[in-house]
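User: My collaborator sent over this chain with a note saying "see what the structure looks like." That's all I know about it. Can you take a look?
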Amino acid sequence: MFLARVYVTLKQTVNDPQGETIRSGLHILGFSSVTTVRAGKYMEIRLDEGDRAEAQKKIEQMCRQLLANPVIESYRFEIEDVRES
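Assistant: Without extra context I'll predict from the sequence alone. Here is the result:
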């Protein structure tokens, strides 16, 4: 069993209105040292695969086909072995 942690963010060249709204809110709350905020998505996906290489291959396919829009978003992931409890 594997646990994948997937992070999806807008590419640096893409405007991030959600990040700008968060930054403005932080300024209103007195956190004036915040210069930029980039918002994104975080997902945890458990896979019942036989080996790490297969799990990585499946997560890569998921990211390319559904979890991220490759035109405007970047993604990265990490995979760890987990034991079912």
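A starting point for your reply to your collaborator: The chain has two helices and three strands.
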